[in-house]
């Protein structure tokens, strides 16, 4: 029977670190602040935003919400982002996806100042991730890496198979896992992959991030493998209070009988995504505060020199 990876417990540790670093910043007169831009009334997006804002408050950070109608013009949305880029009291900007039809996602993401891109989606952030430069890592992939590390799951030389090639999870995870310090051998499967089970059955670590409930069956999993389920699917459930239940991409019960480790849904990767966002926000605030202090020091030195 697989060991259940408790993402909630690991996330608590990350949140505590964020809270401690936030308190240190507040002692310097700086309160980390995340601006959340939400266009439309997508129920899932509203739920995600509420969870993020609650987590920010719990860590002592500030949040500012900018809610725009579904029919908002792209130019107006870009205007909001440009104003937030120039606002020194805002340290991070999060544009909640998906955006309404007619708005170009790449254009909007590229409008965010990379220094405030706490989602890690800006082309500059992605380039730094690929090249190993300084920049924000996307929250969900980074959270997966932290879970593997905290559980002591070996990655050096491990065979990793990722199901899903999204820009948010699959592609960045493939990049991060193949970094020299992680040193895994990564195979990225997608909708064009013929017979993905040929690859998944060889995986020491199998990561499901395709958004298809029940995609991974026990027959696709190697005995003793670590199975990380990133999928979050809402399935109709008239008997539940909300009218739906959450399901991952993994057929949990049978796979748990065969795997060595497994993440549940909910309670696995999800809490880590929010926790890593908190770390990115506090890092952005620290960077801004340090830059401001350095600038003030330079100005003071120039005055003394004069």
Structure, described:
The structure is a single chain. With 306 residues, the protein is of the alpha/beta class. The protein folds into two domains: 28-113, Leucine Dehydrogenase, chain A, domain 1 (Rossmann fold); 139-269, Rossmann fold (3-Layer(aba) Sandwich). It is built from ten helices and eleven strands. It has helices spanning 7-27, 43-58, 74-86, 105-111, 123-131, 139-150, 170-177, 197-200, 252-258, 269-305; strands spanning 3-4, 33-39, 62-68, 92-95, 159-163, 185-189, 205-208, 226-229, 233-236, 244-247, 261-262. The chain has a six-stranded parallel β-sheet with strand order 1-11-8-7-5-6, sandwiched between helices. Helix 7 links the parallel strand 5 and strand 6 (185-189). Helix 1 (7-27) runs parallel beside helix 10 (269-305) and helix 2 packs across helix 10. The longest helix is centred in the C-terminal third of the chain and has 37 residues, at 269-305. The relative contact order is 0.16.
Keywords:
306 residues; 3-stranded parallel beta sheet; Rossmann fold; alpha/beta; 11 strands
Radius of gyration: 21 Å
Query: At the third CATH level, what is the topology name of the largest domain?
Result: Rossmann fold
The CATH homologous superfamily of the largest domain corresponds to NAD(P)-binding Rossmann-like Domain
Main sheet: strands, sense, barrel? 6 strands, parallel
Helix content: 40-55%
